[in-house]
Amino acid sequence: MKGRKKGRILIVDDERSMRDMLEIFLSREGYSVHCSSSASDALEVLEQKGAFDLTISDINMPGLSGFDFLRQAHSEYPDMPFLMITAYGSADSAVEAMKLGAEDYITKPFRIEEIKARINAAVERRRLSEENVELHKLLHDRYSFENIVGKSEAIEKVFNLIDRVSDMDSTVVISGESGTGKELIARALHYRTGTKKGPFVTVNCGALVETLLESELFGHKRGSFTGAEADRKGLFETATGGTLFLDEISETSTSLQVKLLRAIQEKEVMPVGDSRPVKVDVRIVVASNRDLSMEVQKGRFREDLYYRLNVIHIEVPPLRERKEDIPLLIDHFLSKITERQGKGTMSVAADALKYLMSYSYPGNVRELENIIERGVALATGDTIDVDLFPSEIARISPVPSVSHEAMSQSLQLDDLLGKYERELIEAALEKTGGNRTRAADFLGVSFRSLRYRLKKYGMAEE
């Protein structure tokens, strides 16, 4: 068989004819095979070459028996599967082999197709097990706090809140503007809690019409509507044991909200076209870029559902309110994007960074990522300059340059950022004739955020 080998197999048997037969057969099947005539030799091979994808060992051998070999090898390589072979099979020896950690057991004489099936199954189980370990590692790395980049006070509050509710099953509302990373927060919450053993299932409530969304959430019976050709589980049932993330929950109709409330309260759903409820056990996390309390006041969102959902509230700050995180985010995106595109190390030019620090980011973190991806794609060298940014960034007035005099005073970064932030606020107030509401709009921050900064810099009464 040409191409990539299917796996590495170690054969341990004192009978040469058995070793030769298995080696020829398994090599033709595409495996890389190593043979040992004794258990002691096999232990040395494992020490030199490490674990194999499968070890096939005879039980009755002179010197160290197959059981002795299995006992020692399994203690050193607990994840390596063992297939034990003997001509003297009995129920007792089968039980003993399994107790010592054998994956499977087969007696001589055996049919070649039988051992082929068992070998392929054992190797495939190991492959799937390794992939599962890698997947969990990937998921942990991807959705742990390391991927939600930031050290600002605003984002640290989010981290702390996630940690505090990590072992609770309470429903969670995540609010924030589009592009702030609400789904990342939901995934981090899932993978840091006891629900992480179950699935993380997500649905965008604003992307589906009501009838289709109801079927997606609760499932349906065959023939319940045109196109329902078979029974189908809903996402509530699919997410049982894990987390169901309902993004843009504010886009649901009030009639569907009634059914959502019942499903959450009763822990059961009614599939479309069925009269029998289905029990579910799932943690609900919802997100909205609208203020749900305001939606309640306007009559667009049910008050009872709002209070049932809003047990834990996590507010994700917009990027313009945590600008000290921008350099960290830029480094994060540069690393991720250059690796994905197969490029070497890149950086943002110092002058270009000033523009990025001054921009208000209506599209938040997602917009910054797009800007960096555009820069990486268009750059001809290893540096991203201002001329590679979208026109709306190139038109703004950047943060003033840091003078050599300032740097010689060994000022801390927070002091420098505070100095320039105050200067920008003063300039905005002067431009708007002291109108704080207009100044907040001009700076791209909320009025509450501006008021906080005025108090922070002792400007509240100025």
Structural account:
With 462 residues, the protein is an alpha/beta fold. The protein is 48% helix and 13% strand. It is built from 20 helices and 16 strands. The strands form five sheets. A five-stranded parallel β-sheet has the order 2-1-3-4-5, with helices on both faces. Strand 3, helix 3 (66-76) and strand 4 form a beta-alpha-beta unit. The radius of gyration is 31 Å and the shape is extended.
- The helix-and-strand class reads alpha/beta
Shape, principal axes of CA atoms = extended
Task: Provide the number of structural domains.
Answer: 4
CATH architecture of the largest domain: 3-Layer(aba) Sandwich
Give the end-to-end Cα distance, rounded to a whole number of Å.
Answer: 82 Å
CATH class of the largest domain: Alpha Beta
| Mean pLDDT across every amino acid position | 84
Sheet with the most strands: spatial strand order: 2-1-3-4-5
The counted number of beta strands is 16
Which fold name fills CATH's third level, the topology of the largest domain?
A: Rossmann fold
Rg, nearest Å: 31 Å
How many alpha or pi helices? 20
Note poorly predicted spans. 401-411
Helix content: 40-55%
**Relevant CATH superfamily of the largest domain:** P-loop containing nucleotide triphosphate hydrolases
Largest sheet: 5 strands, parallel
Hey, roughly how much beta strand do the residues contain?
5-15%
